[in-house]
Every structure is written in structure tokens, then in C-alpha cells.
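Propose amino acids for all 438 sites.
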């Protein structure tokens, strides 16, 4: 008989690939050692049996999180961001290179960020590098140092430390990433289409008009053209404009795309004037656009759903739609928000897991994450898919008690999260991840 396992988790419902089945998951040394039928569960030092109203999910992988630490830790820090992630069933995040000071645009800056995170993370954390004007020579060294790829902007990023790339600079960055075999993430809005004259103080309609669909579509067409020219891989972050989907469908060999829980949940028609907690860039568009994004997910034209967790202090969300910070903090709420909307449209939990765990893990080459299978990390979530709750900002773990979801009724409660076979508790056991070579 094989050696006794550390733990067996038994459940009537386990998400395995595209199905939900009864199963027993055996864990040894922080990894999944076996997946069997419930009756064939191997011997273990300890057995946990989920309640009948619970489903065992793999830990989610969120590849779009702004931690802002160091430099702007008053907005968010590694401790609070990763506690929030764990509370939301997210066991792996990849941190964005901007909003921290210094931004992650050199190896020295990456080292600073790693030191800030060391010993302060409750989930596993990887890092994106940044592609900004003047740092093309730094990209290869960052790639060797283990970043998962590079993020760039095609218009003003909103922070002075992280400049945006003009057309020629973007082409050069795309060529460099192609040579490195690195993924280039793009905030795809074309600033020539923005219209600040449309901004109308507290009125959401004015903000929406100031950042039209055309700005996203034009930028995405540029990204597609450069990816095809260079043979490199690009990824569109936080897709909002569903009108860009046909072009993305035709370019799937070169360009992937993500969308976010807020674009799948809210619609412009129901955003109240002055509700700056819902300001983000690109903006939340109308209900028809939201439904088109859902259709694109179902068809496989949009690859993943990630939070774009972009928090700030309460003071920065004050003011109107012209002056308030554009970002939504949601790493703790992504799973229930997406599940609430997905089940209403006939999607399964397996669909949600594919969009929020397996596919993001695949995007960054973490084959041992985001799935329940032998050899994978034993990152698991005890999830009650039918339990409802009302979002109370006082119960959220991110640093500042601001949420676009405040007071909203959602379905699906994370009751427990395991990282490498151990429940996430008061001890930070997360690891800092590096990109794995193929």
C-alpha cells in the first residue's frame, strides 16, 4: 500500500475539469497526490468531508491585481491584498508593475518589491514587469529574473512614474517581447478618441461619453497589427468594449483577452450620478454591451476573468467622475460576483472555474495551479454556491473600506481556503513565484 497521505478531502461535488463529480482528493507534501472516487479514498492522517451544500473548487488565479506596495501602501499592501484574496478563494495573484514606487521596470525595482512582500503574503504572489519609455534594455533582465511578462499603457496611466508608450515605442516593445518569448499585456485605449469635454461633473453619462468604445477598438486593432507583424504574444487587459470581440476572435493566434467582474455585473443605465466607487478605465458600458461580453466568454472569444483589483484611499474616491481615482477593489468578491451573474445566465461552476482558475493559470504558465489534479498544488476552496450574503464593506479585508459592491446581494460564500493543503489562517505562508521556463 502506498504511504499514508497527509490529508484527504471528500466532497459530494468537486469541480474536475468541465464537470462536477463526487470525489476524494488526497494530499501529500502540499501537492495533490491522488483524485479518486469517494469510496476509494486512500488512507490519510486526517480526513475532511465537505457538507452537502458545499463544492470543492481549485484555488482561483487572479493575474491582474494592483498591490501598490511599496510606495503607496496606504492604498493597499501585500498583507491586506493577500488576506482579501484568500477570503475570496484566490490562492495565487500576479501583481501589476505600476502604482508602487518604484514601479517594476528594472530588476532593482523588482528586488525592492520582493523585499516588501517577503513574509507578508497569505497567498502565492508573482510579478509582472513594466514596459515604459526608455526601459527596453531592461526587459531581458527582468524576464530572466522571473517576471511573468510585461504590462504597458497606450495612453496616460494615471501615475507619473509609469509612462505610456507611443506607437513607435510600443512597436519596439512588441518586437523585444517577441524575441524574448514574453507576453506583453496592454491597457488598450487610444487617447486620440478620448473627449474630456464630455465630462459632466457627477454625471456618469458624461464620463462614459468621454471614453467611447472607439478608443478601445482602435487601440486593440493596433495591438493586433503589431502582434501579427512581430509574431509576439499580446494580451488585452480589462476588455470593456464588446465591439472589439470580432477583431480579437480573428486574431486568437496572436492576442488573448480578459474581462473583469464589474463589466459582467454592472451596467451604465444603473450607475447613479456621483457613484465614483464605480469609476474605472475603460468604463462600465451599457447592459447590451455587458450581455455581449457574456456571449464572448461563452464562445471562448474572451479567455479569462480577473479582478483588476485597483484600490485607493477613501479620499481619492471623493469628488466627481473627472477627478476621482479610476479603479475598483474586488479581489475578495470576484468569485461570488461572477458566479451570481453566471448562474443567472445558465453557466456552471465549472465554467467559472475555467475562466477564473485554469485559464489564468495557463496564461502565465503555472500548470500546477488552478486545477484539481495529481501533481498540482493543493490550493483548494470550500465554496457554498447557494448561500447568499449582502456585501458589508466592514467585512472586506482590503485596506480601505470602499467597494462598488457595497450593499449588493451576491450568491456564493467562500467558507475556507487551503494553500498547499493547509487552511489559510493567521500565519502568512504564501510564496513569491517566478516564471517557469518551458
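Proposal:
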Amino acid at each position: 500500500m502506498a504511504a499514508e497521505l497527509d490529508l484527504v478531502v471528500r466532497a459530494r461535488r468537486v469541480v474536475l475539469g468541465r464537470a462536477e463529480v463526487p470525489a476524494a482528493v488526497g494530499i501529500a507534501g502540499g501537492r495533490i497526490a491522488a483524485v479518486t472516487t469517494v469510496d476509494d479514498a486512500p488512507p490519510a492522517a486526517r480526513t475532511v468531508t465537505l457538507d452537502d451544500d458545499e463544492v470543492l473548487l481549485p484555488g482561483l488565479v487572479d493575474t491582474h491585481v494592483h498591490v501598490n506596495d511599496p510606495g503607496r501602501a496606504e492604498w493597499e499592501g501585500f498583507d491586506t491584498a493577500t488576506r482579501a484574496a484568500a477570503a475570496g478563494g484566490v490562492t495565487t495573484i500576479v501583481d501589476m508593475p505600476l502604482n508602487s514606487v518604484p514601479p517594476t521596470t528594472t530588476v532593482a525595482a523588482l528586488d525592492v518589491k520582493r523585499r516588501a512582500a517577503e513574509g507578508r503574503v497569505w497567498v502565492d504572489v508573482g510579478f509582472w514587469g513594466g514596459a515604459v519609455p526608455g526601459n527596453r534594455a531592461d526587459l531581458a533582465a527582468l524576464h530572466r529574473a522571473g517576471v511573468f511578462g510585461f504590462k504597458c499603457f497606450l495612453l496616460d496611466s494615471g501615475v507619473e512614474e509609469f509612462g505610456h508608450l507611443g506607437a513607435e515605442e510600443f512597436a519596439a516593445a512588441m518586437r523585444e517581447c517577441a524575441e524574448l518569448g514574453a507576453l506583453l499585456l496592454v491597457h488598450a485605449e487610444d487617447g486620440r478618441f478620448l473627449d474630456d469635454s464630455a465630462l459632466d461633473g457627477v454625471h456618469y453619462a458624461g464620463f462614459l461619453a468621454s471614453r467611447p468604445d472607439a478608443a478601445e477598438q482602435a487601440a486593440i486593432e493596433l495591438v493586433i497589427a503589431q502582434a501579427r507583424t512581430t509574431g509576439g504574444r499580446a494580451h488585452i487587459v480589462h476588455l470593456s468594449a464588446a465591439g472589439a470581440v470580432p477583431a480579437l476572435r480573428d486574431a486568437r493566434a496572436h492576442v488573448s483577452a480578459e474581462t473583469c467582474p464589474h463589466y459582467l455585473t454592472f451596467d451604465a443605465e444603473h450607475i447613479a450620478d456621483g457613484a465614483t466607487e464605480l469609476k474605472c478605465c475603460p468604463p462600465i458600458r451599457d447592459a447590451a454591451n455587458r450581455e455581449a461580453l457574456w456571449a464572448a466568454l461563452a464562445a471562448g472569444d474572451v479567455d479569462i476573468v480577473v479582478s483588476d483589483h485597483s484600490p485607493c484611499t477613501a479620499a481619492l474616491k471623493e469628488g466627481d467622475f473627472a477627478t476621482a481615482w479610476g479603479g475598483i477593489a474586488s479581489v475578495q468578491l470576484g468569485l461570488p460576483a461572477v458566479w451570481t451573474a453566471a448562474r443567472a445566465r445558465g453557466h456552471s461552476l465549472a465554467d467559472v472555474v475555467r475562466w477564473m482558475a485554469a485559464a489564468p493559470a495557463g496564461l502565465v504558465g503555472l500548470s500546477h495551479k488552478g486545477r484539481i489534479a495529481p501533481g498540482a498544488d493543493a490550493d483548494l476552496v470550500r465554496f457554498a454556491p447557494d448561500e447568499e450574503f449582502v456585501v458589508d464593506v466592514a467585512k472586506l479585508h482590503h485596506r480601505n473600506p470602499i467597494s462598488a459592491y457595497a450593499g449588493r446581494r451576491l450568491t456564493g460564500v467562500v467558507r475556507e481556503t487551503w494553500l498547499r493543503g493547509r487552511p489559510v489562517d493567521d500565519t502568512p505562508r504564501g510564496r513569491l513565484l517566478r516564471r517557469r521556463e518551458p
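Residues 273 and 340 are 25 Å apart (CA to CA). The chain has a mean pLDDT of 97.
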